[in-house]
Amino acid sequence: RKIHMSTYDRKARMEQLEREHDEWEERMRIKNKGDMYPVWATLAFGLFCMSLGFLLARSV
């Protein structure tokens, strides 16, 4: 059994992953943009919490 894939296999896999990612991106774009709002809100909240934690850690 070969441990590592040949370069061709790896290249084919990368191309497949890229195709899948592009298709996923297209589906996300087609779905209306309002659906992205909760995601952005969550990300913003996460960043807010991180900066808050960072400030608290520095002040201690």
Compressed to H and E, one letter per element, the order equals: HH
Q: From the alpha carbons, calculate the radius of gyration and give it in angstroms.
A: 20 Å
Q: Which structural class fits the helix and strand makeup?
A: mainly alpha
Count of β-strands: 0
Mean pLDDT over all positions: 82
Task: Offer a quick outline of the entry.
The protein has 60 residues and is mostly helical.
Structure description:
By secondary structure, this protein is mainly alpha-helical. Helices cover 78% and strands 0% of the residues. The protein contains 2 helices and no strands. The longest helix has 24 residues, at 7-30. It is flat, with a radius of gyration of 20 Å. The termini are far apart. The mean pLDDT is 82.
Draw up the topology in text.
Blueprint: H1 7-30, H2 37-59
Properties at a glance:
single chain, 60 residues, mainly alpha, flat
